[in-house]
Amino acid sequence: MPRLVFHLSGRFPDSLILGEDDCVFHSRILDDSRVHKKSIALPDADNAFERELCEKYIQLFFDEVGASELLTNFDHCFLNDYYSYSVRPIFTQMLAVKELCDRFPEKDVLVLSAKTSCSLVPMLGFKTTESKRGSQDLLGSVTAEQMKGNKAFESAEFISLHGDIFCKDVFRKSILLVANFVFSLLFIAKCALISSRRSNRVDGKPLVIYRNSHQERFALKLVDSGNDLSLLYIPQLTQGVLRPKKNNDIANGEINTLGFDLSDVLFSIRKSRVLAKSFQKISKNESADSFVHVKGVSVKLNKGWIKSELGLISIVFIYSALLSRILQKNKVKRLVNFELVGRMAGIEAMAARNLGVETVSIQTALVASRPHPVFPYSNKFFADSEVTAEMIRNNGVVAAGAVEFAGSLDRTRPLKSAKRFSRVVFYTQPYEPDVTMRILSALTEWANRNEVELKIKLHPRDYASAYSTLGLEAYYVDKDTKIAELYEWADLTVTRTSSVAKESLSLGCPVLLTMWSISEQTLKADYINSMFSEGYISNDIESLKALLSDPFRVVNSNLRLHRALFSNLGPDDLFNAILKK
After folding, report:
1. pLDDT per residue as tens digits for the range 353-384
2. Per DSSP, what are the bridge partners of residue 512?
3. Fewer CB within 10 A of the end CB, N or C, for the chain?
4. Edge-to-edge strand order for the sheet containing 207-210?
């Protein structure tokens, strides 16, 4: 009898013989070398479930503590990340399998997965679309374990394969503890290096916080808008370290650059140990299993399990304690950050809210128009356009504040035009490097054939080694090159789904999006919209070549997008909104 074979984790077994009528699907996280040559990627499930899944997920936590405590408890800072990177992917895989089973009821069902001792949905230790660290087996293995308890898959046959070390929960947690210890030491060392013996005072001014080079760019744009701000740099938890800006490094030289001293760091280390230990004390009620049931598929969760996972990453407790210490010592009344929906957005908003500090978040990256458990975390979330604000205003099942558009961070410039694209910059993204490889290969071939100057700007979390086989060393720009200078130099920006696209467009450089992956082609956002997409979005190599050879079409479509997204509200309007009480 023909079969539906679902390969969720592990390496496809050579001993398994496929019939001519068998259909084979694999999890997208698996490397090509691990899947059968006949296999295709598991298709996207029906996304109509999203809102219901989000609502039922958040209800588990909302019922327990109520709205106010939901937004002040540390463990709830991770609700969005846990949903987006753990619960949703597992549920989506299960639903995709169910939809295929319903579509082909005449076929037997066979599920291949690596065996795991982690039966509950994990928070940590697996690969995601952006992070290359961890297991590519763990999520697929847990999906298979969850399927065994679902009525929808009771007739399926399950075959266990060999998995990586992260599938053994005791090893996963041991490795996480070691990694957390190393990253915590690095974070403490970074903080110690930039700490000073004397701290400036905020004196009631809004405090702008930044943690990496991306956020620093936008923090300095705010600084250039006026001098009623204070600036604070805290190192990124797990990435490189910047040199904190001093007054003499800043254009107008009048900004109050806030510091912290070594005693603040030591206090935060002690405080974090107390916080981490409290997460190990799990009540019987918290250890009870809960179920999120939507469209005939159930995911089993355990709030006690989630808390125990959080206890493994004390580095985030150190950051939270340090930020709280700085806010309290300096009597900060308003915190301005650039976090969107992830764990750092929750941690920073929680630390501020517990001290009665108002939080303002400024959008500097893409926010997809799909539901989130909590959005926004901040009291005010300033979107980067009116179109964006309208699309994401009701994203959150729980909202701690309001989404508004008050003005752009840049003064919008008229769009450039070109009879031919002769200077092009491609900006990479840190996910799906195989897709980026294909784009770069096509782009460099076109540039060489048409005598076009091409430059490649790597994302801060991307590495040239991922594309070493293409021999692109001559195309890379220095990591310290200012992006604004590249917009000025180029007559076309090419990227995937990135905030670079909108920033480039606002500063007058046309954009061409290369959306070649399935995940990108199903994405909806303000500048990725069927109303505007004709003429500046490429889905494959042929459409890329056609658009690159037709500047008139690309620029005209950019003009329509430019008019739709940007208004006459600029940096001064945004700055005034930030200062407004």
Report:
1. 999 999 999 998 888 788 999 999 999 999 98
2. 494
3. C
4. 256-258, 230-233, 207-210, 334-337, 358-362, 380-382, 402-404
